[in-house]
């Protein structure tokens, strides 16, 4: 069997496996949502607002969740009707509306953040080195999907101006110059609140070092 054919078959198997994971996640998300009286989309918005720890404009929510403006507006309006979020004028622009969680919304968001626990338990059965490799692979996949424009850009360590990738992970760890901490692969953040996007040249250099590591 040629290497090209084998590679195509391997890609297909990986893709099929990811689709099966997607099916399980969608099923679990709806099961949780039905019990909570919400939709998975509404739960996702609540969790996003909780993670950002502050008001967000509708456009920001739509961009971060990859939803249309209409879908975002409808979901937020429903959440507002349930008393889980409230709209206020944005502090930096009185013409714009910002959405924030209410006390009830924070409680609901904490519950919503727990529905993927079934997946955490499955991943937890992997050895530490397997989890590290799995996470590295996921980061590389997420990055490619961002570059291709299929998912929103995340505030991840590997695109941050403060990130210093290890050139030899067997001997040294990655470093965040801003927080002055060292990090292994599994410490790298997919969404960091102090993220500052590096310029294109720096991103390419950083990513080349990170992606080529074994």
From TrEMBL:
Name of the molecule in the record: HTH marR-type domain-containing protein
GO biological process: response to stress
One Pfam family named in its UniProt record: MarR_2
Domain of life: Bacteria
SUPFAM superfamilies with a match to the protein in the record: Winged helix' DNA-binding domain
Annotated organism of origin: Paraburkholderia solisilvae
Every HTH marR-type domain range: 11-143
Residues passing through the membrane, by range: none
Gene Ontology MF: a single term: DNA-binding transcription factor activity
């Amino acid at each position: 069997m040629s290497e090209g054919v084998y590679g195509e078959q391997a890609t297909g198997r990986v893709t099929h496996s990811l689709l099966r994971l997607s099916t399980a996640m969608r099923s679990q998300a709806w099961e949780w949502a039905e019990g909570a009286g919400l939709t998975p989309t509404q739960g996702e918005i609540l969790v996003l607002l909780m993670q950002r720890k502050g008001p967000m404009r509708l456009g920001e929510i739509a961009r971060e969740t990859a939803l249309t403006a209409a879908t975002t507006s409808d979901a937020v309006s429903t959440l507002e009707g349930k008393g889980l979020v409230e709209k206020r004028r944005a502090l930096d622009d009185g013409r714009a509306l910002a959405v924030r969680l209410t006390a009830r919304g924070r409680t609901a968001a904490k519950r919503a953040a727990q529905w993927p626990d079934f997946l955490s338990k499955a991943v937890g059965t992997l050895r530490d080195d397997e989890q590290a490799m799995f996470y590295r692979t996921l980061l590389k996949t997420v990055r490619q999907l961002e570059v291709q424009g299929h998912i929103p850009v995340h505030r991840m360590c590997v695109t941050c101006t403060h990130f210093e990738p290890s050139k030899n992970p067997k001997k040294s760890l990655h470093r965040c110059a801003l927080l002055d901490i060292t990090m292994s692969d599994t410490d790298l953040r997919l969404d960091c609140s102090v993220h500052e996007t590096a310029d294109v040249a720096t991103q390419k250099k950083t990513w080349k070092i990170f992606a080529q590591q074994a």
